[in-house]
Specification:
Blueprint: E1 13-18, E2 21-26, H1 38-50, H2 52-59
Antiparallel strand pairs: 1-2
Amino acid sequence: MLKTANLAFEDELEADFKSEEIILRKNKNVKLHKGVDAEFMEMLSDVIKKHDEAFKGLVDR
């Protein structure tokens, strides 16, 4: 279920309640630690997305 929802350990979730439903969403507003540059994190995220399959292959080694 976590993989399908693209969730990872320590991801923050938002919850909405509608009648008999609970809707969980990944919180897109990430808080960066002091000293971490937002532009660097965006660039790193792009690299990870671009090379996702290669990184996943390294996990199995």
